[in-house]
Design brief:
The structure holds two protein chains of two kinds. Chain A is of the alpha+beta class. In chain A, 40% of the residues lie in helices and 21% in strands. In chain A, strands 3-7-8-11-1-12-13-14-15 form a nine-stranded mixed β-sheet. In chain A, strands 6-5-16 form a three-stranded antiparallel β-sheet, with no helix packed on it. A two-stranded antiparallel sheet of chain A has the order 4-17. In chain A, strand 9 and strand 10 form a beta hairpin. The longest helix of chain A has 20 residues. In chain B, strands 2-3 form a two-stranded antiparallel sheet. The two termini of chain B are 32 Å apart. By secondary structure, chain B is an alpha+beta fold. Chain B has a domain of 38 residues: Orthogonal Bundle (Histone, subunit A). In chain B, strand 2 and strand 3 form a beta hairpin. The chains are: A alpha+beta, B alpha+beta. At the A-B interface, strand 2, helix 1, strand 9, strand 10 and strand 17 of A face strand 1 and strand 3 of B.
């Protein structure tokens, strides 16, 4: 039978605050830092300590909520989620349960069938747990990460393929980076996914029984795990069986999901309101302040780039994928360069140089002003495109001004017709055979001769004048 | 209404308590008494009163996002029954996570 997958995602996002959510310990790199250097009596759950909410964690969560079009609740409530595990020192995680900070948003994604709205059920604040390392016969506990602010963003089951789930997740990451609330650095585990997947016969409405796959740390493994579940569940149903409602893990090496616990072992978290924290109140003034600071989001920027700069959808998409890149682009345009030319130079030569040297846009020595100048040197015919590539490479290395490089290295384009005509003559005289074959109808040889003349001119001849002179002498 | 024995088992399991049959029987009575006592609250009419999540009625206090000094790793681990490589050392746990 044919089945339609139904997928919902829970995304856990670390909020990039300076300090933890309920105490003043610094948020440190959980991969690089020495264990247990950022832990205090509060986040190690010493008796008698009390949590106090980090204002910025709330603001970052509000930013995300607003960017997703959620309602920011004037009152939300922290709750205790009770379970025992050694990475959770208090024996409960402070989270939000019945009354989360943000509710009912949505996100637009691109799918094969066009644009689609994915509804967001809620986003709530909570604290991260510590990190366990398993050694011979024991486990070691590092609490650096315990108490790092997390935002859990829960979608509605509105996605119908792994590709849609991936598009949603990638969009979300882009938004988080725009908002400056998360580095988007997946290898550091700052964004983690849980995928809820079920299948139902195509054309039916009733939801199938779902499984939940936990601890997915990359787009790839999330997509693979969902595809694996779709295939597995479809097979179970085809064979007349029933899907079990289970919690699963993902085995990266085997490329398979596996059962972590069944329904009978489902956790009983005994949520109750956190007595140590009063309800979190967000008044109009606070909400307005946060909203006023929201940056332009990728989607709006994309549409503005199309409308204002007449870019292709492809160029606009590439340029808005990163806020710093989009800002660099606009600044270059503001320095007087043509948008289309800036897009070409950035997505072509500049990105190639950045990739080769693994340098990000924030670190490069080519200022938007220098790039704009370089582009105008080309459009004014002072240097040709190939020379401009050479100059860009030089600016990239030294940060020097393009005009200065052109003058110092004598790279200015030669537009002197007499001079170019001389180069053409000497090439024609040196290659009588090619000239003969051109004149007997093999017109393609002209391109080869063009290259020879350009070489003679050390790459600096004005290509238009060169072509004119060459054709004049060949056809003349 | 007395708790069912299975409910006592479930609560004991959640609390990671290993109870004898005699203890289970005793706690079943005690827990039931506590629940019955609390159940008196159900006699009050709370129509139109929104649930109270917290005894504090004031505004929420927040702190600025400022870093404070953490404990030294040595001090942190001072009360730990066992430690290794600057970390708490606990009996092996595998597999399941929240």
């Amino acid at each position: 039978m044919k089945y339609e997958p139904v997928i919902g995602l829970e995304v856990h996002v670390e909020l990039a605050t300076e300090s933890k959510i309920f105490c003043g310990c610094p948020v440190v790199d959980s991969v690089e830092a020495e264990p247990n250097i950022a832990v205090c009596p509060v986040c190690s759950a010493m008796p008698g300590t009390l949590p106090v909410v980090n204002e910025r964690a709330v603001e970052y969560a509000m930013r995300v909520g607003m960017a997703l079009g959620c309602k920011i609740e004037p009152v939300s409530i922290f709750a205790r989620k009770n379970y025992f595990y050694p990475d959770l020192p208090k024996g409960y995680q402070i989270s939000q349960f019945e009354e989360p900070l943000a509710t009912n948003g949505e996100m637009l994604i691109e799918t094969e069938d066009g644009e689609k709205v994915i509804r967001v059920l809620r986003a709530h604040l909570e604290e991260d747990a510590g990190k366990l390392t398993h050694v011979e016969g024991a486990s070691l506990v590092d609490l650096n990460r315990a108490g790092v602010p997390l935002l859990e963003i829960v979608s509605q089951p509105d996605m119908h393929s792994a590709a849609e789930a991936r598009a949603y997740a990638e969009n979300l990451r882009e938004i988080l980076r725009y908002l400056g609330v998360n580095s988007g650095d997946m290898e550091k585990g700052v964004i983690r996914f849980e995928a809820n997947t079920s299948v139902r016969p195509v054309g039916t409405e009733k939801l199938g029984i779902r499984t939940e796959v936990k601890n997915l740390n990359s787009f790839r493994s999330m997509e693979d795990a969902i595809n694996c579940e779709i295939a597995r569940q479809s097979k179970v149903l085809d064979e007349g069986g029933e899907v079990d409602q289970v919690t699963m893990g993902w085995d990266e090496e085997k490329g398979q999901t596996y059962v972590m616990r069944g329904k009978e072992d489902a956790h009983d978290y005994r949520y109750f309101p956190e007595p140590d924290l009063p309800p979190l109140k967000v008044d109009d003034a606070w909400r307005k302040r946060v909203r006023a600071d929201l940056p332009e989001l990728p989607r709006a920027k994309f549409e503005r780039f199309l409308a204002d700069f007449k870019l292709s959808e492809y160029d606009a998409k590439v340029l808005v994928s990163d806020r710093a890149i989009a800002e660099y682009f606009e600044e270059t345009v503001n320095n007087g360069a043509k948008p289309k030319a800036v897009a070409n130079w950035m997505t072509g030569e500049l990105f190639a140089l950045m990739n080769q040297t693994e340098v990000s846009i924030d670190e490069i020595k080519v200022t938007p002003k220098a790039l704009a100048e370089l582009i105008s040197l080309v459009s004014e015919g002072k240097i040709n495109k190939n020379t401009a590539k050479e100059v860009l490479g030089e600016i990239f290395k030294s940060g020097k001004n393009p005009q200065a490089i052109v003058e110092k290295k004598g790279l200015a384009q030669v537009s002197d017709t007499a001079l170019i005509s001389g180069f053409v003559s000497s090439v024609i005289n040196a290659h009588p055979d090619e000239v003969t074959s051109y004149r007997s109808g093999k017109t393609g040889v002209a391109n080869w001769l063009f290259g020879q003349v350009m070489r003679e001119a050390r790459g600096r001849a004005n290509p238009q004048i060169l072509r004119e002179e060459l054709m004049k002498q060949l056809d003349g | 209404m007395p708790l069912k024995l299975e409910e006592v088992d479930h609560i004991a399991k959640l609390a990671r308590l290993d109870l004898s049959a005699e203890e289970k029987a005793r706690y079943r009575v005690q827990l039931s008494d506590i629940l019955d006592h609390i159940a008196k609250l159900n006699e009050l009419d709370t129509t139109g009163i929104s649930p109270t999540a917290n005894a504090f009625q004031g505004t929420s206090a927040t702190r600025a996002d400022k870093v404070h000094k953490s404990l030294s790793t040595a001090d942190l681990l001072k009360n730990a029954p066992d430690a290794d490589k600057n970390q708490f050392k606990v009996p092996a746990v595998f597999g399941e996570k929240k």
